[in-house]
Amino acid sequence: MKTYNLAVIPGDGIGVHVTDAAMEVLDVAGAKFGFEMAKTSFPWSCEYYLETGAMMPADGIETLRGFDAIYLGAVGWPETVPDSVSLHGLLLPIRKAFNQYANIRPHRLLPGIEGPLRATGFDILCIRENTEGEYSGAGGRVHQGRENEVATEVAIFTRAGVERILRFGFEQARARRGHLTSVTKSNAQKYSMVFWDEMTDLVAKDYPDVTVSHMHIDAMAAKMVMAPQDLDVIVASNLFGDILTDLGAAIQGGLGFAASANICPDRSGPSMFEPVHGSAPDIAGQNIANPIAAIWSAAQMLEHLGEAAASEAVMAALEATTRRGVGTRPGASSTDEITAAVKTALSA
Amino acid sequence: MKTYNLAVIPGDGIGVHVTDAAMEVLDVAGAKFGFEMAKTSFPWSCEYYLETGAMMPADGIETLRGFDAIYLGAVGWPETVPDSVSLHGLLLPIRKAFNQYANIRPHRLLPGIEGPLRATGFDILCIRENTEGEYSGAGGRVHQGRENEVATEVAIFTRAGVERILRFGFEQARARRGHLTSVTKSNAQKYSMVFWDEMTDLVAKDYPDVTVSHMHIDAMAAKMVMAPQDLDVIVASNLFGDILTDLGAAIQGGLGFAASANICPDRSGPSMFEPVHGSAPDIAGQNIANPIAAIWSAAQMLEHLGEAAASEAVMAALEATTRRGVGTRPGASSTDEITAAVKTALSA
Ligand SMILES: CC(C)[C@H](C(=O)O)[C@@H](O)C(=O)O
Ligand SMILES: CC(C)[C@H](C(=O)O)[C@@H](O)C(=O)O
Questions:
Q1: N or C: less crowded end of chain A, CB within 10 Å?
Q2: Which residues form the Isopropylmalate dehydrogenase-like domain (chains A, B) (predicted)?
Q3: How far apart are CA A246 and CA A232, in angstroms?
Q4: Looking at ligand 1, which residue's alpha carbon is closest to its atom 12?
Q5: What is the rounded average pLDDT of the residues A249-263?
Q6: Rounded CA gap, B276 and B257, in Å?
Q7: CB contact under 8 A, B135 and A160
Q8: Mean confidence (pLDDT) of chain A
């Protein structure tokens, strides 16, 4: 039997509950499709930080390196640990350390879900750059606390970094409906975003079969609400992709439905799978978190591991579940009920 | 009769048409409420750039300084002049030169308009920082065109700049429903946005009557689609405000409805009024641009000039027009028809 070594980081808040749900579904999928998930769980979280002073041990990255994949629930508990500490201590370094430069986030309505838009038939794949750009962590503060304080944040875009995410996006577009929209803000950010536009045009030459559009981030935000059905693959920087994928989550019915794969395309390190939503301290521990995004992310992981049939079966089980009206409205079904329904559909 | 000296910059594309519309409505308002708009028109635009090599003359800013207000249609014609040139040569320098640090953008549905959302009863006032932050124009490119090229964009936030926009936002919140949401991304941008969060908490102490929320830009983008009715005043940085106001335009039915005032609160220079939409080269010259955003912006200008009754009358005329179904759907009424309907309603 094929065995995959999976590092599991449940994290904080509802991250823990939805990770449990996703792991249960993975076990059912394994039993059905003949593989085993050998899971090693790591307690790295804000609680861990309060105990040890770090979000993960000094050798955390080295520990993760040997795994076939990483599954992460959600990180953050702002009441006790500032997000700027918790995220920069765990989530963001993992994305960067393993060159998980392609963050893949699909946005479409599962059956039975009434989203906030009147529009329905959209199917968007957002490819977010995941390792540099506006979240490089560069910048500083001078004259802190004084009248003349200045804070800077430096967005850093490398040619290699921009080129590889664009190529990745073009490959995805080629495998889908053949259209790619590159999102920048080159009318107001004349260094980084003009550079990104140029790189888009350059890489596009290698993909004559893909039609390319340029759109500014503000116009794209409006587009996703006004006419999401016109969009196919979107490629965007770290920040812009972050914003657009929460918006994508919203139009697909909410954060409870938005899956995410942090992919290291050259497989020099493990990829990481996590729902788009956060730890949601306000609803933690109440058995009401929607595990659908987490389970969808697990399906992305199965696909990445080469278990395409299992991945498709999990997606079909999710769709069967929402089609029946389970998990489609906030609070109507518990986390456990939704998970059970997906497992039942999957074993059927 | 009171006379206001107005600098008019129609700009490019549909900017010209909607400016004409707004000026006609202003004349009707003046006749009714007893003031005169003495308009001086400036041809500064991409066409002007192609003729002269600059978007405006070297003394353009000095020329504008003496006016009571500036009205701008839209700037940009990317086919002939890169946006990074046209915007940095005209729109952005005006905002900065006259300390128009508060960009006020209201988002609500006019009567008769069916927006893209199922939700309807929202009334949001977005206050966008307008002079620094992510659009400071700082940054650079090294090793341009080479494998090791790096492009940077430096977001610069000054204490004075952040404090004044927050105070402005709190004043607005106090005059409305008493709630302010400060939008940052302090979980991933640990210098600039952590600073903004701290400043929010500091300024909030002076406004105990205003309730304050912090929200990340990604969550806010989702919120504006999922539950816009929960929002009152939003305060955001230059980039975040830019994105959220296009999104705001989308939920109010489209860019044709989104007004914008670039305010210099201390009145040390003229303020500038312009619709949120751009020059829309694809529909220029066809008499189909919706002038409602432009006319709404003119109403904001009247209010700023102290003509509150005239401003309210223009808004009432806009509402009467859309309530009748004129201008509510793209292409159904021409620019001229909508303008005529507003003028008729205003003179009635
Ligand atoms: C938690 C936060 C740092 C993270 C991000 O912005 O990358 C999250 O919003 C996401 O989209 O994965
Ligand atoms: C044209 C562009 C530079 C401008 C901006 O981003 O400020 C526009 O999008 C706006 O919102 O006024």
A1: N
A2: 5-342
A3: 17
A4: A276
A5: 97
A6: 8
A7: no
A8: 97
Residue A188: closest CA among B87, B265, B185, B290: B87
Strand-strand pairing, A179-184 and B2-11: unpaired
- Cα distances from A68 to residues A20, A57, A308, in angstroms, run 19, 20, 16
Query: What span, in angstroms and rounded, lies between the C-alpha atoms of A276 and B219?
Result: 11
Q: Which of B28, B83, B20 is nearest to B278 (CA)?
A: B83
Whole-number Å distance, alpha carbon A83 to ligand 1 midpoint, is: 10
Max intra-chain CA distance, chain B? 66
- What is the band of B244 on the pLDDT scale with cuts at 50, 70, 90? very high
CA B115 – CA B199 distance, rounded (Å):
35
Per-residue model confidence (pLDDT) at position A139: 98
Q: Name the residue type at position A1.
A: M
Q: Is B83 on the interface with A (CB under 8 A)?
A: yes
DSSP code, position B190: T
Going by C-alpha positions, the residue among A242, A166, A153 that lies closest to residue B152 is A153
**Nearest atom (ligand 2) to Cα of B274:** 12
Residue with tokens 């964009």: B153
H or E element: which one contains B8? strand B2-11
Atom of ligand 1 nearest to the CA of B216: 9
Residue B153 bridge partners (DSSP): A155, B139
Which residue has the least CA distance to atom 11 on ligand 1?
Answer: A242
Q: Provide φ and ψ at A250, rounded to 5°.
A: -60, -45
CB of A229 within 8 Å of any CB in chain B? no
- Measured CA to CA, the distance from residue A93 to residue B224 in angstroms comes to 30
Whether A35 and A2 have beta carbons less than 8 Å apart is answered as yes
- The mean predicted confidence, pLDDT, of chain B is 97
**Which of the residues A101, A135, A207, A343 is marked catalytic?**
A135
The DSSP line for B231-254 is --EEEE-HHHHHHHHHHHHHHTTS
- Residue-range domains of chain A with CATH: 1-104+255-348 (3.40.718.10), 116-251 (3.40.718.10)
- pTM > 0.70: yes or no: yes
Which letter does DSSP use for residue A254 in this model? S
The count of residues in chain B is: 348
Instruction: List the A150-158 sheet strands across, edge first.
Output: A133-142, A150-158, B150-158, B133-142
Query: Which residues on neighbouring strands pair with residue B271, listed in sequence order?
Result: B69
Q: Is B142 on the interface with A (CB under 8 A)?
A: no
What is the per-residue pLDDT across B158-186, written as a single tens digit (0 to 9) for each? 999 999 999 999 999 999 999 999 999 99
Per the structure block, which two tokens stand in for A135? Answer: 């979240």
* Number of Cβ within a 10 Å radius of residue A67: 21
Return d(Cα A106, Cα B164) in angstroms, integer: 40
Name the residue among B119, B159, B217 with its Cβ closest to that of A149: B159
Q: Is A96 on the interface with B (CB under 8 A)?
A: no
pLDDT tens for each residue of B22-71:
999 999 999 999 999 999 999 999 999 999 999 999 999 999 999 999 99
pLDDT tier for residue B331 given thresholds of 50, 70 and 90: confident
